[in-house]
Amino acid sequence: MSKKRQSDDQLDFEGQRDGEELLFIFRRHPIAMRKGYYVLLTPFVLGSIPPLIWQTNLELFLLPFAGLGLGLVLFSYHFLMWYFTIYIVTDQRIRQITQHGFFGKDVVELRLSKVQNISYNIPGFSGEMFGYGTIVIQTFVGDLIINKVEHPDTIYNKLQDAVSNAAKQEQYEETT
Asked: Is the pLDDT score of 2 beyond 70?
């Protein structure tokens, strides 16, 4: 996502239309990188086993550091996929940018005027403890399901306000 400053201290993004105002940007909760955390810890743990078994061989004590280095390299991939997957909400639309690999990305746009209903779900104890949930945005053509959103209640309220304001703006434009 490319952000740059305009003269009126307003952020803009790649693909922004003239007259479109950026309301907020959000991303998934860091718990969405769960597999990345496993990839980080597994080589470290496996590299720690040989020094525990053969304690007299001092060279084996370098294996946990090598495992940690490998884990960090593998984790960085998952981190980049999480970091560059974002949701942009403007006064006209919701734009989902999903990173796939180092060079691929998917962009899905949904006009706020087409949104019929928004709901959210917090999945039990872990969702309450870590503060994540699922937001479902329903339209005529299908649902946009955003899993593992950080603070879904706050994002839900902001989305409801944006959809309400877009509906008021559309009614105002129809009457004039």
From this structure: no
